[in-house]
From TrEMBL:
This is PAC2 family protein. It comes from Nocardioides terrae. InterPro entries: Proteasome_assmbl_chaperone_2, PSMG2_sf, Rv2714-like. Pfam families: PAC2.
């Protein structure tokens, strides 16, 4: 059982979770939770016992020194933190860890016990996958939800995926089994630049969370890091004509697919997001 530090009673908390591993191409999803923990000054209140869920020959502990110069070992685990964003009238619970190597159902049950103990009313899972997406275009983010009102408000979909899944899918299903409202966002990372980090994908996930929570989220260095990442990939593509030609083909396919949405509601959403950002900066 996960031991939680005594904390004040949270206000209608939304839970945001991401896990390194199969669900986390280029570490884009886990980097999103890292970003939220930083900009919202989140406080860690508990963690799972790694002995129960991790194979230490697969996810090895790390040895190093702490801030006092003392040698210590950091064990792979999943941590739970809480935050109170200044622009949000509810609290946030952040779950960030590694996809477990064993006992997935027990792992999800333990986390959901904590979610219910803290009063969580909505779970948002984040993931990232490798896809045929050009790095020069906005990173596609697909969203699904179990809640019809959220599907309608954010123009999401009811999931129809069939095939292998990771801990994000299992955790999402565990939410459904106990009637916990859940949303899942997945960023499509260009497969030809799969090495982490991918700040452009992280920025895309943060933007979708802004839409869900209806607040501006401090972006920090993400916009500049995203531009630098894209410039770096451009330089790599320029040095390899085969890659450059492949990117052009992806761009053409993407632009053709997106043409029907380049008006009306899509433009209105972008303009609304721009206005929110202007209000935050003023």
């Amino acid at each position: 059982m996960i031991e939680i530090e005594q904390a004040r009673e949270l206000v209608d908390p939304v839970v945001i979770a991401a896990f390194e591993g199969w669900n986390d191409a280029a570490d884009a999803a886990s980097a999103t939770v890292d970003h939220l923990m930083k900009v919202w000054s989140a406080r860690v209140i508990g963690e799972v016992d790694p002995e129960d869920y991790y194979d230490f020959q697969v996810n090895r502990p790390l040895t190093g020194s702490d801030e006092h110069g003392m040698r210590r070992i950091t064990w792979p685990t999943t941590r739970i933190a809480v935050a109170s964003p200044p622009d949000l009238d509810r609290d946030v619970v952040l779950i960030r860890g590694l996809e477990p190597n064993m006992r997935w159902r027990q792992f999800c049950a333990e986390l959901l016990d904590v979610v219910e103990e803290l009063g969580g009313t909505l779970v948002v899972t984040l993931g990232a996958l490798l896809a045929d997406a050009p790095h020069t275009r906005p990173i596609p983010v697909s969203g699904t939800s179990t809640e019809p009102d959220i599907v309608d408000r954010l123009k999401l979909e009811m999931s129809s995926y069939e095939g292998p899944t990771g801990i994000v899918g299992v955790f999402q299903d565990a939410c459904t089994q106990i009637d916990m409202p859940a949303v899942s966002y997945w960023a499509a990372v260009p497969h030809y630049v799969a090495q982490p980090p991918c700040p452009k994908a992280t920025l895309a996930l943060v933007t979708r969370l802004e839409e869900l929570l209806e607040i501006p989220i401090p972006l920090g260095d993400l916009p500049e890091d995203s531009q630098a990442w894209e410039r770096g990939v451009n330089e790599l593509a320029e040095d390899d004509e085969d890659v450059a030609e492949y990117v052009r083909a992806l761009e053409e396919a993407r632009d053709t697919t997106d043409l029907p949405e380049a008006s009306g509601e899509a433009i209105a959403r972008e303009f609304e997001r721009y206005l929110k950002r202007r209000q935050e900066d003023s």
